[in-house]
């Protein structure tokens, strides 16, 4: 059985065929539904109620920071207070496309970390072209468990992340031929600090690269980790599942 620690199955692209996506997940024993809007969160609630394999994460994405108001924070706080979410995320910093509102991103990021600290919820981190600022903020403010989602950094950066109370989550890129850093991280990261994910509908792993991704393809991420670590699949899958369970 496989673990998908980060899947956007309630986004529009996948939710329009949600019954098929769920049917295809027969070999997935754990899944974190990532929600970046209230609509996605409301779609996720009945899925979790029907199937205990699901956990829910909700948070305000860094690229949306300019549009986040107190009302957005109030809705997230209500979900936390009602014990409807298991993780705050994905949250973080993204300087890849637009650096015109960095301070707003930092403010939104810190505020959500503090909400997670207060409620003892783990946080799922989006860190793109903003490693130094992101790690500095986490070192200063984070008092809870951290998941570095779809980790794309170097082994050296991974080691800095592991000094915090964190897990390294690898997705489809670890299967890509030219993804040298991801493979190096998979080999170097202790197995008890690793997670697997799809980040679906994006970055479908080989041998299905280019297709719309979904949780059933997480098995190819875990199989690649087994190959790189030269470990039996049962050992890797069991430990990744235990790592996931230890967060909640």
Ordered list of secondary-structure elements with their pairings:
Blueprint: E1 2-7, H1 12-15, H2 18-23, E2 28-35, H3 38-50, E3 54-58, H4 70-81, E4 87-94, H5 102-119, E5 123-128, H6 131-141, E6 146-148, H7 155-162, E7 166-170, H8 180-188, E8 194-196, H9 218-229, H10 233-246
Parallel strand pairs: 1-2, 2-3, 3-4, 4-5, 5-6, 6-7, 7-8
Organism: Absicoccus porci
GO molecular function: DNA nuclease activity; hydrolase activity, acting on ester bonds; metal ion binding
InterPro entries: Metal_Hydrolase (IPR032466), TatD-like (IPR001130), TatD/YcfH-like (IPR015991)
Number of helices: 10
CATH class membership: Alpha Beta
Order of helix and strand elements from N to C terminus: EHHEHEHEHEHEHEHEHH
The termini sit apart by 19 Å
Strand content: 15-25%
Number of domains: 1
CATH topology: TIM Barrel
- The CATH superfamily is Metal-dependent hydrolases
Low-confidence stretches: none
Strand order of the largest sheet: 1-2-3-4-5-6-7-8
Biggest beta-sheet profile: 8 strands, parallel
Name the CATH architecture: Alpha-Beta Barrel
Radius of gyration: 17 Å
Share in helix: 40-55%
Globular, elongated, flat, extended or rod-shaped: what is the shape? globular
Q: What's the mean pLDDT score?
A: 97
- Care to count the β-strands? 8
Secondary-structure-derived class: alpha/beta
